[in-house]
Task: structure prediction
Amino acid sequence: QKEVEQNSGPLSVPEGAIASLNCTYSDRGSQSFFWYRQYSGKSPELIMFIYSNGDKEDGRFTAQLNKASQYVSLLIRDSQPSDSATYLCAVNIDGAGNMLTFGGGTRLMVKP
Amino acid sequence: GAVVSQHPSWVICKSGTSVKIECRSLDFQATTMFWYRQFPKQSLMLMATSNEGSKATYEQGVEKDKFLINHASLTLSTLTVTSAHPEDSSFYICSARGGGFDEQFFGPGTRLTVL
Result:
């Protein structure tokens, strides 16, 4: 079992819809969770991070964390074609120091 | 957020040559830097972690004699691909952590093509 799992997609949503991206992790002691966006041919850029159970909102983005279920998600409201990218979930596995463990990424396609 | 730069952004070299890639944190002190490699349509693969002033920690399967990492200062880490071969062609990305930030900030990446 991979430590951080994501559905590779592609996830296709119409413009203006809510895109829901999911990530599960295996280490129950994980403390920090990050969502990165990566456009094709570019390096990842941080969207947001979450540490506590519940929701964290930043503009059109909402991160949701459920440590009991070992599940973190990213919701993108009012999806735009410019949101089309690969979204990477990253987890700071307990005991791994500064290292992040990345999921394989979910490719999102927002169709006009 | 913090800014991380990489140089060069792309490089083409002949097989057998060595290539050095620089990673700099521009506005914060990076206590830890990470080097990743990404092949087309694949996810990031961590190659090594380096802390300023100490030897890098390499991930399993990464040859430390082939991929030399130096983190001599709090703002600069270098990755040298020695005796590069076509199979080393990839997108190399560094990231940095420090300056009170928990997250890693990524450089723009270096695309290496070995002919």
